[in-house]
């Protein structure tokens, strides 16, 4: 059986400092790893529980066209959801069995194999499926990363979908999520979980995202035990999240 983890939410931006302050300084994320890829630089922050946050920004050269186009068309915001799998060939077979055609399939590199699902096939957002061998790059944290004040957990990713049953098949049967809350027991839709504590809440309905019929990215929810978020922190989260094009909801 293929092992799958909902690994991270990737956010495209031209201003990394906003993301470092929001997800590092205020929300308590700590540096995991990052590096250069063709056309973009990426860095990931991990939390006490749940998936990681990845920030990606374009770098000079023609390979950055995909991210430049995304930022020109939409501005900063969630770019893709990543699922790490132990057997990408088996996962792609299950995806194709649903009638979905993966794109940008790259299986030649032994250490990193990947493929993508278009927003129209994934309810309004790009999905990246990847298989990694060996260790990720060990690079020092960027100079602009703010020191974390208090740790928090990345508790839930919400996603609006037009067809709840089809979304459960994709994120559950194909991408390894375990259904913990079903539509018949919850008015908010269905919730799926992964072994790293990642939770994806699928909500029926919602407006299409940027012309991609079938879904829209919902709030990213964070919470921490003990000391609640202060009024100053709530205000800073609201301002930074607007600059980054993300919706953040906080649970104390």
Write up this protein:
This protein is α/β, with parallel strands linked by helices. It has one domain (1-252): Roll (2,3-Dihydroxybiphenyl 1,2-Dioxygenase, domain 1), CATH 3.10.180.10. Helix content is 22%, strand content 37%. It contains five helices and 14 strands. It has helices at 16-26, 65-74, 88-97, 164-174, 231-244; strands spanning 4-12, 30-37, 40-46, 52-58, 77-85, 103-106, 112-117, 126-132, 153-161, 178-181, 190-193, 199-204, 215-223, 248-251. It has an eight-stranded mixed beta sheet, with helices on both faces. α1 runs antiparallel to α5. The longest helix has 14 residues, at 231-244. The chain is globular, with a radius of gyration of 17 Å. It starts with a strand and ends with a strand. The relative contact order is 0.20.
In short, what is this structure?
The protein has helices at residues 16-26, 65-74, 88-97, 164-174, 231-244, and strands at residues 4-12, 30-37, 40-46, 52-58, 77-85, 103-106, 112-117, 126-132, 153-161, 178-181, 190-193, 199-204, 215-223, 248-251.
CATH topology: 2,3-Dihydroxybiphenyl 1,2-Dioxygenase, domain 1
Oligomer: single chain
CATH architectural label: Roll
Number of domains: 1
What is the terminal separation in angstroms? 37 Å
Radius of gyration: 17 Å
SSE pattern: EHEEEHEHEEEEHEEEEHE
For the largest beta-sheet, the strand count, sense and barrel status come to: 8 strands, mixed
Class by SSE composition: alpha/beta
What is the overall number of helices? 5
CATH superfamily: 2,3-Dihydroxybiphenyl 1,2-Dioxygenase, domain 1
**Which strands sit side by side, in order, in the main sheet?**
2-3-4-1-5-8-7-6
| Beta strands, count | 14
Share of helix, binned? 10-25%
Inertia-based shape: globular
Q: Give the strand content.
A: 35-45%
Broad CATH class: Alpha Beta
Low-confidence region ranges: 207-214
Mean pLDDT: 91
């Amino acid at each position: 059986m293929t092992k799958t983890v909902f690994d991270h939410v990737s956010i495209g931006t031209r201003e990394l400092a906003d993301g470092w302050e929001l997800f590092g300084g205020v929300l308590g994320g700590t540096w995991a790893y990052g590096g250069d890829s063709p056309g973009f630089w990426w860095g990931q922050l991990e939390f006490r529980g749940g998936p990681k946050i990845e920030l990606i920004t374009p770098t000079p050269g023609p390979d950055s066209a995909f991210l430049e186009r995304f930022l020109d068309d939409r501005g900063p915001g969630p770019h893709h959801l990543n699922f790490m799998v132990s057997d990408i060939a088996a996962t792609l077979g299950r995806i194709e069995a649903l009638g979905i055609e993966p794109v940008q399939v790259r299986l030649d590199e032994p250490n990193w194999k990947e493929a993508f699902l278009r927003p129209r096939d994934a309810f309004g957002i790009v999905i990246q499926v990847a298989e990694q061998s060996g260790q990720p790059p060990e690079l020092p944290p960027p100079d602009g990363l703010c020191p974390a004040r208090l740790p928090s957990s990345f508790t839930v990713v919400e996603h609006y979908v037009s067809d709840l049953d089809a979304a459960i098949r994709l994120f559950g049967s194909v991408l390894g999520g375990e259904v913990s809350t079903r539509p018949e027991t919850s008015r908010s839709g269905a919730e799926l979980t992964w072994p790293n504590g990642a939770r994806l809440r699928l909500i029926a309905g919602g407006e299409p995202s940027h012309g991609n019929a079938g879904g829209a990215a919902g709030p990213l929810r964070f919470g921490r035990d003990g000391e609640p978020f202060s009024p100053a922190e709530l205000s800073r989260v609201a301002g930074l999240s607007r600059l980054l094009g993300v919706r953040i909801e906080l649970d104390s």
